[in-house]
From TrEMBL:
Claim: rRNA-binding is one of the keywords in the record: no
Protein name, per record: ABC transporter ATP-binding protein
GO molecular function, one term: ATP binding
Alphabetic keyword roster: ATP-binding, Nucleotide-binding, Transport
InterPro entries per the UniProt record, alphabetical: AAA+_ATPase, ABC_transporter-like_ATP-bd, ABC_transporter-like_CS, Metal_Ion_Import_ABC, P-loop_NTPase
Pfam annotation, one family: ABC_tran
Keyword Disulfide bond: no
Source species: Brevibacillus composti
The organism's taxonomic lineage, starting at the top: Bacteria, Bacillati, Bacillota, Bacilli, Bacillales
Domain ABC transporter: 3-242
Length: 259
């Protein structure tokens, strides 16, 4: 099992930020985590990566029960791509050096990289259609190119679990679709990582995401097979507004019901 979270509650200043969360992710599944602002998504990710200790409940990730494991070792198997990472990177680094720094998950590169790592970084950049940008300064890249570089960076460490935290934020339609098709490619790799994709936008949930968890006010509203979770009834209840849904390209497109 990749993630096994049982009865996890996290209290902060008497506020229940997560309430009795149960979540099991099996090998071979890829999950989407959907929740509105403040629903507890980041808190849950912090628990999975061992940055937050739950008030109650147990957390087992990649077969390791937290409390009995060296979290620094554990985190080497988990890639986390988020916009907060983007702001931490040194702006003058080249795209290639940013990718290379993923091997040790450091901000910046402190040792001379091995030739095979340079090759791997370039292959990853090429795979994402960014080979031509290897020597470009990270700060000069577009938002879409930056996201691809950050995903390539995370893949440098060959993680077993890859968290993509709202990767399409700030992307135009074309850049978003390009990034999504690259994410679909990662999902199809037979020995690739388990994906955990966080979003507010239902239409970003690609067919490769076999399962979806809807998180609301710190509680699991629904978790299961994507096609059983993303129904008109479930989504209308979740967003508390009558919705219509339409299927296209194996994805669900949501709109407000006409009055
Ligand atoms: N360290 C903390 N101390 C107190 N409250 C916190 C702490 N961390 C998060 N919260 C609160 O917990 C709630 C959930 O926050 P969280 O960041 O997990 O939500 P989120 O679903 O990731 O939101 P967003 O989509 O806006 O990023 C919020 O109300 C937030 O203010």
């Amino acid at each position: 099992m990749v993630i096994d979270i049982r009865e996890v509650t996290w209290l902060r200043e008497d506020k229940q930020i997560l309430r009795q969360v149960n979540w099991q992710v099996q090998d071979g599944e890829h999950w989407c985590l959907v929740g509105q602002n403040g629903s507890g998504k980041t808190s849950l990710l912090n628990i999975i990566c061992g940055y937050i200790w739950p008030t109650k409940g147990s957390v087992t990730v990649l077969g390791q029960r937290y409390g009995q494991v060296d979290l620094r070792d554990m985190r080497k198997s988990i890639g986390w791509v988020s916009s907060s990472l983007m702001s931490q990177l040194h702006e003058n680094e080249t795209a290639e050096r940013v990718v290379l720094s993923g091997r040790e998950a450091t901000i910046g590169l402190y040792t001379k990289p091995a030739e095979e790592d340079i090759e791997r970084a370039y292959t990853l950049l090429e795979q994402f259609g960014c080979g031509h940008l290897r020597d470009a300064a990270y700060r000069t890249l577009s938002q879409g190119e930056r996201q691809k570089v950050l995903i390539a960076r995370a893949l440098m460490a060959s993680p077993r679990l890859l968290i993509l935290d709202e990767p399409c934020t700030g992307l135009d339609l074309l850049a978003r679709e390009q990034l999504l098709s690259m994410i679909a490619q990662i999902a199809e790799q037979p020995d690739g990582p388990t994906l955990l994709y966080v979003t507010h936008h239902i239409e970003e949930i690609l067919p490769c995401f076999t399962h979806t968890l809807l998180l609301k006010k710190g509680q699991v509203e629904k978790a299961g097979r994507t096609r059983e979770v993303l129904t008109k009834e479930e989504l209308s209840r979740f967003f508390e507004v009558p919705l219509d849904i339409r299927e296209g390209q194996g994805r669900i497109w949501v709109s407000l019901q006409e009055r």
